[in-house]
Amino acid sequence: METDLDSDLDLLVIGGGTAGTAAAAEAVKLGHRDVLVVNDRELGGLCILEGCMPSKTLLHASGVAREARDAAALGLDVPIVGVRMADLQARRGALVERFRRAKAERVAGAGHAVENGRVRFTGPDSVVVTRPDGSERALRARAFLVATGSTAVRPDIAGLASTPYWTSREALLCDRVPTTLTVVGAGAVGLEFATLFAELGSAVTLLARSAPLAAGGDPALSSAVVRALEELGVHVAVESEVASVAHDERGFEVAYWCEGHEERLCTERLLVAAGRTPALGGLGLDAAGVELVDGRPVLDEHLCSTNRRVFFAGDAAGRHAVLHVAAEQGRHVARNLARHARGARLARWRERVPLDVVFMHPPYAACGLTEQAARAAGLDVVVATKAWSQQGRGIVRGAGPSSGFVTLVAERPSSRLVGCQILGPNADELVHVPALALHLSASARDLMAMPWYHPTMGEVFLDLARDVAEQCEVAAPACVDHGA
What is the pLDDT of residue 484? Predict the structure, then answer.
């Protein structure tokens, strides 16, 4: 499909990752003819090129190594002779290329134009596209979607900038397993890479400013995560603050404060996982009248910026930076453009069932609300929890005290499910059971009515549903209107 770049466009998408290509494809489906995606790198975005898919490729290999080492407890001797990192990286590269090609084919068949270049706003409705050969094209659009992704945050640590520290990008491309690795940051990325390298044989230290997964407000969860990491051999220093970093031919020296004392450690490699921030540099957003606060766009309930023509989606929006949310945000913007074209009111963006997964070992997954969040929202809830070490299939699989648990949160007295948290085997897959229940506004009694094959990990939801239903039934008499 050819586009006259000198004419007005219906939609100009800046960024060829998940959010941008989802928006462009949806806009075409809804009847917009002049849709252009401008991308300044390979199509695919962070997930395919440097995030989800390559990291899970390496994590699969490290998980096999861990299972081989753990097999002795089952009566099996499975020796691990070594790690052929070159072969692991070759497989990673081949799979990334496979996913990249598949993405390019989907985009090519989506019915919109694609331009390679960098975009800079020159006014509220105009931009200049600079192509790889240095030539420029000016164009205007009725609407813009900024979906430029994110970049790794570099914290303000003395000496850090002058050292060859790793971000997740460099860690994914490593050519050998470091003997020692220090990870700064206990968010999803930090926990994932601490797991990966510990399973491959590195002696890993995790420096965490707060307890891992503390955002959920559940100290029991954080304690369980720390125990699981320590069982992998990871040394976890909670409430630690890195003061300075130095590097020489021997490696890194890291000075940090922990429990009021200054500590120092030497490490071969240093991985900084201090979060990500929207990649908005060079876009000229000030010329477009787009306001930023702390490097993030000011957005309304429709994902619209302070310029009513400019929308944001995905990591660039600075909100819930995960792939499925990015895709849905992109499609949401396209649908709102169609609503605007026919004079209808724009729809509010909301994530109906918040869903999170951390690919550590064991994995953590959550959907909906935690108990604390539900109570803060004014809900009267009951909670049921079961440890994998007390669940049939979990016991068969050798679940121990550090194997985690499942917590189900439901509203009283209806037993309507409002949230679930899982730490343990296959949490990343199992979470879709309660997520579907939340999406359908199902109750614990609905779960009880379903067939559950025995013995499976999924049966845990039947046990928890029974517990929730019993708690709600105990409370039911207090809800009877005796004046009726």
Answer: 35
Query: Which among 398, 360, 386, 389 is positioned nearest to 228, based on CA atoms?
Result: 360
Query: Which pLDDT tens digit goes with each residue over 155-191?
Result: 999 999 999 999 999 999 999 999 999 999 999 999 9
Task: Provide the residue type at 176 as one letter.
Answer: R
pTM attached to this predicted model? 0.91
Separation CA 278–CA 297 (nearest Å):
9
d(CA 317, CA 279): 10
CATH 3.30.390.30 residue ranges in the chain?
362-476
In CATH terms, the fold of domain 11-50+90-152+277-341 is FAD/NAD(P)-binding domain (3.50.50)
CA proximity to 211, closest of 198, 196, 223: 223
Q: In which band, very low, low, confident or very high, does the pLDDT at 1 lie, cut at 50, 70 and 90?
A: very low
Q: Are 42 and 100 in contact (CB under 8 A)?
A: yes
**Is residue 404 within 8 Å of residue 389, measured between CB atoms?**
no
Q: Which fold has domain 160-274?
A: FAD/NAD(P)-binding domain (3.50.50)
**Residues counted in the chain:** 484
The pairing of beta strand 203-208 with beta strand 180-184: parallel
How confident is the model over 341-352, as pLDDT tens digits? Answer: 888 899 999 998
Return residue ranges of the chain for CATH 3.50.50.60: 11-50+90-152+277-341, 160-274
CATH for 362-476 is 3.30.390.30
- HEC per residue, the chain: CCCCCCCCECEEEECCCHHHHHHHHHHHHCCCCCEEEEECCCCCHHHHHHCHHHHHHHHHHHHHHHHHHHHHHHCCCCCCCCCCHHHHHHHHHHHHHHHHHHHHHHHHCCCCEEEECEEEEEECCEEEEECCCCCEEEEEECCEEECCCEEECCCCCECHHHCCCECHHHHHCCCCCCCEEEEECCCHHHHHHHHHHHHHCCEEEEEECCCCCHHHCCHHHHHHHHHHHHHHCCEEEECEEEEEEEEECCEEEEEEEECCEEEEEEECEEEECCCEEECCCCCCHHHHCCCEECCEECCCCCCECCCCCEEECHHHHCCCCCHHHHHHHHHHHHHHHHHHHCCCCCCCCCCCCCEEEECCCCCEEEEECCHHHHHHCCCCEEEEEEEHHHCHHHHHCCCCCCCCEEEEEEECCCCEEEEEEEECCCHHHHCHHHHHHHHCCCEHHHHHHCCCCCCCHHHHHHHHHHHHHHHHHHHHHHHCCCCC
What would the pLDDT profile of 35-67 be if each residue is shown by its tens digit? 999 998 877 778 888 888 999 999 999 999 999
**Shortest CA distance to 282 belongs to which of 23, 44, 15, 45?**
15
